[in-house]
Amino acid sequence: MDLPVTKAWIKARKHDRYYRAAKRQAYRSRAAIKLAQIDDRYGVFREGDVVVDLGAAPGGWSQVARERVGPKGRVIAVDLASVPPLEGVEFLRGDFSEANVQARIFETLGNPADVVMSDAAPHLSGARSYDVARSLELAEAALSFAVRALRTLLRLRRRPRPLRHPTPPQAPSRSSTFVGAIFKGGRVEPPSPCPLPPSGGRG
User: Does 163 map to a domain?
Assistant: First the structure.
């Protein structure tokens, strides 16, 4: 069961700059603004990409992905909850961690995906340790799916670092825990000859 929404929380949220920006741009969630910032900085999406959004409700991340991949791209959104339609987004209802739902996703995909992303969160119980554990379970389930769904899961030559982006100091907090994950696939290209000695590679 989710924690009750207090009047103080609602008031604080209305003053949150991410919330206001999302409202101005007709996004369904404030998290859409953060995803747009991440894409601007790291180049998550490319035109024509196939994107799978796990735990998509209410649809804010799917909106951003739909804009960024263009008319030649696809966005497939999956969630347990019913999500109002979005133009250009294909919705599947179900628990993405379940095998039968994953089978439906793969059937809908047809071919490997370029990006798998997840902003899924459990219903909050109020027990922080339990809520954190459930959030991590969802993130692990998203990673497990991404390994199977992506064209090629990019491997980092250096130690991976957590993805960081600015968060507003006035953002409302209800002692919840946010775990978001974006997994990017790579297109495999044949190697090209290079002069000797090599001038260096891209890490």
Answer: no
